[in-house]
């Protein structure tokens, strides 16, 4: 089965099973981009690659749910949100996005510093690379991929062009008129 067939089959499975129930969970119907985010989160399953720290020291505050922050990280990339503060504003403005990311149970959103620390942890742990490698291994393990790379830059040569040898012209003598 080709990759495009696998993806369309998987998207069809997600849409048939998840979206009818998704409409029931929200007060307002989800937009197309929110449905796309749900499909991507269902396929990628970024939660598998985030350590959910259930054990913590008895002192201090309980750590926030990193899985919700990881889903927000995916939403930030999908929605092309440039800054963390813009992401927080988008989560505050859109109740559906807040629920999709998993922040509805928490009540109040984490601070910008918490988001930044979590995103830094994701970068250090190479969360996106792990998820990508897992998807490639799962869906493209049996495929043979080939590519051709060509470089079209000009190569500067140091050689001087060969001098042209002048061929002496034959002198033709005029015939005397008879």
* Total beta strands: 0
What's the overall geometry? elongated
Quickly give the structural class. Answer: mainly alpha
Instruction: Flag low-confidence runs.
Output: none
Total domains, how many? 1
- How would you spell out the order of helices and strands? HHHHHHH
Could you give the distance between the termini? 92 Å
Helix-residue proportion: 40-55%
Please, how many helices?
7
What's the alpha carbon Rg, rounded to whole Å? 31 Å
Question: Looking at the chains present, what oligomeric state does this protein adopt?
Answer: single chain
The proportion of strand residues reads under 5%
Largest sheet: none
Mean model confidence by pLDDT = 77
Structure, described:
- This protein is mainly alpha-helical and 178 residues long.
- The chain has one domain.
Properties at a glance:
mainly alpha, 178 residues, elongated, 7 helices
Structure described in brief:
The chain is mainly alpha-helical and about 180 residues long. It has 7 helices and no strands. The longest helix is centred in the first third of the chain and has 23 residues.
Any chance you could write out the topology, listing elements then pairs?
Blueprint: H1 3-25, H2 32-44, H3 66-78, H4 84-93, H5 95-101, H6 112-124, H7 127-140
Helix pairs in contact: 1-2, 3-6, 4-5
């Amino acid at each position: 089965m080709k990759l495009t067939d696998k993806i369309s089959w998987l998207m069809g499975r997600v849409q048939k099973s998840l979206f009818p129930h998704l409409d029931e969970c929200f007060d307002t119907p989800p937009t197309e981009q929110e449905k796309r985010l749900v499909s991507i989160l269902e396929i990628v399953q970024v939660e598998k690659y985030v350590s959910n720290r259930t054990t913590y020291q008895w002192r201090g505050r309980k750590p926030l749910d990193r899985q919700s922050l990881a889903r927000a990280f995916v939403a930030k990339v999908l929605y092309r949100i440039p800054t963390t503060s813009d992401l927080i504003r988008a989560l505050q403005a859109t109740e559906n996005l807040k629920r999709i990311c998993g922040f509805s149970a928490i009540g109040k959103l984490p601070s910008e510093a918490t988001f930044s620390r979590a995103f830094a942890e994701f970068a250090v742990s190479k969360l996106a690379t792990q998820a990508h490698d897992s998807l490639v291994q799962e869906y493209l393990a049996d495929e043979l991929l080939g590519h051709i790379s060509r470089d079209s830059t000009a190569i500067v040569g140091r050689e001087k062009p060969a001098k042209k040898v002048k061929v002496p012209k034959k002198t033709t003598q005029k015939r005397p008129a008879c």
